[in-house]
Amino acid sequence: MTLAPSIPDIRRIGGRIGAEIVGVDLAQPLDDGTISALNTALVEHKVLVFRDQQLDDAAHVRFASAFGPLTTAHPTVPSVDGNANVLNVEGGEGARANAWHTDVTFVVAPPKATTLRSLVIPPYGGDTLFANTAAAYADLPEHLRTLADKLWAVHTNEHDYAPHPQFRTDEAEQYHKVFVSKRYRTAHPLVRIHPESGVPNLFIGGFASSILGLSNTESRDLLRLLQAYVTRPENTLRHHWAVGDVVIFDNRTTQHYAADDYGDLPRKLHRVTVAGDVPVGADGAKSYVIEGDEAGHYTPQAAAS
């Protein structure tokens, strides 16, 4: 069996985030050298883009598995029929993730990385934006960094990126019921130390609902202030999809946003996520469950914590 070359061509595509990988065929098994180089590039660039790939679900799962053990598709949303690791990301009403977030932070061990594969792309719109949360932390004034280092946030799947009430439909309400069919609330450090690079980053996003020890008003104001640093244009990358694109991003130090600007046109991607560790804060303390369980049915890393 022919293996891909062990030295991929890595081309930076953003000032602070993002690289394109050229000359790697993800339909073929990857050798250890290639996997190591790609993981190093993932930690450095945070988002890796592979163009013109010809993958089915099995090859997609094999590619994601190169980065570690996989989660199941989602803690509450069903997987693609016949593949427990694959989530269908389709732009139906209620399922559009048009708010900045980090995937599945409402469980105690969120994914290490997310892989997305494009299947159906509208002729316009539907881009995904990515943000570098480590750069955001580095941008903070010293006094804000000192404050953020000490704070913890509550993350919950009763998320705040459901459609505005005036736009809600029966389909949106049904999707929301599935999403929150089991409630999760987890305390994470506001500043997470990356387990591989050791670099601190702002670990917030759309599932962060409040800050421990602060009122709702204080929490909202402070989260909005910090979130503004995350989404500064300098810290972001906008990916314009084409059919056959595969993107992997480091879920431990990024946020992302799927732009809802394609009306009722079809848009479909498949998602496979790599299991991650329990976040650790600046003081060495680990995240912990407030409500729900450790989601062992979703991620094998929860049992290992």
UniProtKB/TrEMBL annotation:
Domain TauD/TfdA-like: 10-273
Cofactor or coenzyme needed: Fe(2+)
Any one GO cellular component localisation term in the record: cytoplasm
One Gene Ontology MF term: 2-oxoglutarate-dependent dioxygenase activity
Keywords: Dioxygenase, Iron, Metal-binding, Oxidoreductase
Domain of life, source organism: Bacteria
Keyword Iron: yes
Pfam families found in the cross-reference section: TauD (PF02668)
Similarity comment: Belongs to the TfdA dioxygenase family.
Protein name per Swiss-Prot or TrEMBL: Taurine dioxygenase
Source organism per UniProt: Krasilnikovia cinnamomea
Lineage: Bacteria, Bacillati, Actinomycetota, Actinomycetes, Micromonosporales
